[in-house]
């Protein structure tokens, strides 16, 4: 069960977009940034990532240890991310096209919702950043005054080794009597559980060559379309929405 609420389903939508945040809409993982620069540093963080990849620890437990190593007050951490994290510049026009055409865009993330809104405000404006639907983890302020001098992550699915099981955001759409065409955009391990449930899966082509989701899809035979920026994804999404190509045709190219 989820300890955090879900937004209501868009039951009448013909198309729904769900997108990962870190490494997909952002060009750099914001939690890695916090850990590497303010917490215990990159070497230990990398070692803990590998433990998760090798099945020696859960994502949930190691992710919490990484964030616990960051001593910075929450508001300050939000400001540092907002100043330093770069976003895919194509996301703005992608989001605006979807909005103008009644296509819900939902961010599905293992990060913390307030940090996502703080960073997003710079790209799409504060008002839109407060309105956009985000299904993510939360944060709890642990200092007495509740000001966020100290804080910890609140996992959406504390019983899951992922902390947030993203399939629970996408499956209710697939189970509707008239399911919408589901687009999912992602890049990494946190997207594995949701990836196979999308009608059209977009996998971000990372310039550093590290692409865990692409490797997984190839291994598992999951059809997907690579994209470098949201501008590319918008071309494909538009062609499906406007009936110029089918999902199968986009996946075949
Ligand atoms: Mg990611």
Describe this structure in words.
This protein is an alpha/beta fold and 253 residues long. It has one domain: HAD superfamily/HAD-like (Rossmann fold). Helices cover 43% and strands 16% of the residues. The protein has helices at 30-37, 42-53, 59-68, 74-84, 91-100, 113-124, 126-131, 167-174, 192-195, 212-220, 230-241, 247-252, and strands at 15-19, 105-112, 133-141, 151-154, 181-186, 200-204, 225-227. Strands 4-3-2-1-5-6-7 form a seven-stranded mixed β-sheet, with helices on both faces. Helix 2 packs antiparallel against helix 3 (59-68) and helix 5 runs parallel beside helix 11 (230-241). The longest helix is centred in the first third of the chain and has 12 residues, at 42-53. The radius of gyration is 18 Å and the shape is globular. It starts with 14 loop residues before the first strand and ends with a helix. The model has no long low-confidence stretch (mean pLDDT 93).
Strand order of the largest sheet: 4-3-2-1-5-6-7
Radius of gyration using CA atoms only: 18 Å
CATH fold category name:
Rossmann fold
Cofactors and ligands: magnesium ion
Strand content: 15-25%
The CATH superfamily appears as HAD superfamily/HAD-like
Q: Please provide the count of β strands.
A: 7
* Major sheet attributes: 7 strands, mixed
Q: What is the CATH top level name?
A: Alpha Beta
CATH architecture: 3-Layer(aba) Sandwich
Describe the structure concisely:
With 253 residues, the protein is α/β, with parallel strands linked by helices.
Jot down its keywords:
binds magnesium ion, seven-stranded mixed sheet, Rossmann fold
